[in-house]
Amino acid sequence: MTTQEQEFxxxxxxxxxxDENRLKIIGLLAQQPRSVEELSAVIGLGMSTTSHxxxxxxxAGLVSARTDRHYYIYSLHTDTLKDMSQRLLQDxxxxxxxxxxxxxxxxxxxxxxxxxxEGRVKTFPAQDKKLQVILRYVVKAFEPGQRYPEKxxxxxxxxxxxxxxFLRRSLIEYRLMxxxxxxxxxxxxxxx
Amino acid sequence: MTTQEQEFxxxxxxxxxxDENRLKIIGLLAQQPRSVEELSAVIGLGMSTTSHxxxxxxxAGLVSARTDRHYYIYSLHTDTLKDMSQRLLQDxxxxxxxxxxxxxxxxxxxxxxxxxxEGRVKTFPAQDKKLQVILRYVVKAFEPGQRYPEKxxxxxxxxxxxxxxFLRRSLIEYRLMxxxxxxxxxxxxxxx
DNA sequence: AAATCATTTCTATAGTTATCGAAATATTAT
DNA sequence: ATAATATTTCGATAACTATAGAAATGATTT
Lengths: 192, 192
What we know:
CATH topology of the largest domain in chain A: Arc Repressor Mutant, subunit A
Distance between the termini of chain A: 28 Å
Structural class of chain A: alpha+beta
Number of helices of chain A: 10
Oligomer: homodimer
Helix content of chain A: 55-70%
CATH architecture of the largest domain in chain A: Orthogonal Bundle
Radius of gyration of chain A: 30 Å
Number of strands of chain A: 6
CATH superfamily of the largest domain in chain A: Winged helix-like DNA-binding domain superfamily/Winged helix DNA-binding domain
Low-confidence stretches of chain A: none
Shape of chain A: rod-shaped
Largest interface: A-B, 51 and 52 residues
Strand content of chain A: 5-15%
């Protein structure tokens, strides 16, 4: 089962139960199976409306009907209800509600705001979170595992902005690059 | 907590989660707390819309915000989610979703269809379920605990319909009255 | 086969809600 | 204080859904 299907299933489950009259139906069917006519009389709705609600509940796998004499007798699928609520108790199920990949949408938005057409940094964002997006973008100009003297670092950073000192300092501060105190060698720190 | 409040709370819970984008928000906040701006960028909605969704989730007690720097950081209340889903696992919670008293609405509807203005039975319904409603109505004319000879039973039943034999037989069949084989004594069986 | 009855499907309408853009509010930085 | 920025509130619109009544379908009895 894919993440999207999971989400859809859970969404259908919640939508099915997000109605006052459908909750009442669930409650009545939990007591005993009942016909459409009986249900609509008890909760005070037209039979077509009740039928509609039952169809939605059935689509979510919460009820089903068997035919008995003149009547369609609907009954509750308690196990579906319990399966779903138990799934909610599992942390992983909740975390997977949003596709993990889509997280760069935010980065894209920040980048398009603060970069010009040639990929240079127009201005530096004041907020940490946005600045980090910019820095993660800039640091890709360095090869992982390679060591750079300060002079070369400045040359590379100059492609992004005049203020190489600020960039250099920030890259160190946010632990995207490392620096060796003595010889002035820099290197890119791998993201983990 | 009254039954109505319970239902309302559960209804609010389901309504809060019955939206695709709110489910995504829940998923994102399960990974880590985030700001409105970040959330709206990632799921691709306007910030006002995202704010609206967050407000609904907060109303249901599912998220809350703390302020940090420029941002309002929203985080997930995992315990609310778990409380609710555990409540669903308890059978009593589900049965109480509909007020128990309201079950006579159906009876009322059946009675008004098959009784005339004086409380007499116009015709006998063909369906078991409806016939039972009529019989439960008729049997109230007998005092619990008292014994009636057949002749008196017929007199009483005559107030409801000419066909006293059918009524008598049905009352026995559906175990609303008992009969003593020998002397022909009848009595009303208490509902349990 | 015809008749009766329960249920569903169809059609239309009213109420609710998701959405966005603009204006207002709140918070932090200068 | 003033400016900058993030968030919420407001107003309007579009999409969705609950609802009822009428017509169609399906099932049961005679």
